[in-house]
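Mods, move this if it's the wrong board.
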Amino acid sequence: MNERYFTSYRQEFPITKKHLYFDHAGVSPIPLRVKTAVQSFLAESSKNGAFFYPQWSQRITEVRKACAALVNAEEQEIAFVKNTSHGLSIVAEGLDWKPGDNLLVYEREFPANLYPWMHVQRKGVNVRIIPSRNGYICLEDLEGRMDAGTRLVSLSSVQFTNGYRADLKKIGELCRSRGVLFCVDAIQSLGIIPMDVKNYCIDFLSADSHKWLLGPEGIGIFFCRAALAEKLTPPLIGWKSVKTDFDFEKPVFSLKSDALRFEEGSLNLMGILGLGAALDLLFEVGIENIEQRVLELGDEIFKEAEKRNYRMLTPQTRTERGGSITFSGNFDPVQMKDALLEAGIMVNVRGGGLRVSPHFYNTKAEIRQLFKIIDRLVRKNQIAL
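Not the wrong board. Structure tokens:
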């Protein structure tokens, strides 16, 4: 796909008229169609109230199917959650842990994929740390820490500090061969990198929509492999947890047998409808097309950074990186971020460097403009080390 194809979608992002936005690994701006979907829901609810519930219910089913297609799962394997932490906590609190069990996590994980596992230490579970090898995860380190007591491995698909992309297929196959559950925090890749829970032997996956998925905050998806749903005890229980959820006057406590058992109460309709509109956009552009586009923009960042002899903290190989590129140079990254913010440019600081994370609608010209402004700020000695 040429650049014109992708830039034809810039009208979906009014922010491009005023700002350079390169923090999709943080919080993405909302596309117009997402805004429209949420506004339509509010207008319908205000004007007609619950008369519109049949239409909303149908749309929820459609969005659930879209989420399943996004990760190559079945519809009944998808639950809507509040955020990534919510989904990961369902696994952490739902598994039948025994004293002496252990699980593995990477030492540089985002806290959402650390704290739920640290919390189960109260049950006598040992949390084993996979070391960082210059920002990489080595399969040998993972395998060497597994033993008969290892119940689960939980990793991010892409690391938030340096954009390192894990080899999910190899890790998943290792876990499956050892009888170890594989849980993935996919928030840093879902929407820009194709995901296949079946091919990657993933048992659980969680991600919310406000980063690369281009949706609202406060809504996410949780995948639970069908064979495992009844082996997870829901940490939260409500009227929607049971099979006869709409039989209010004859309560029977019989939990649903699929992932919907983890949706304990009324759903975030605005969030789901917004997420659905975002998914419509991403599928329209094409996830594979988006991946290639984001990698091309990453190549442009590498080229401009290397011209200036900046130190790259992100792997250059396309198969080893996601959408965010982190680098350091002859500037203080925090001061640089703040100076760029004042100039109307959104980036972030992670892992000791400046993190730049463009999406498919960004352009190479915008990236070159970013580096020219960095040059000007350095020349002015505003943010020198």
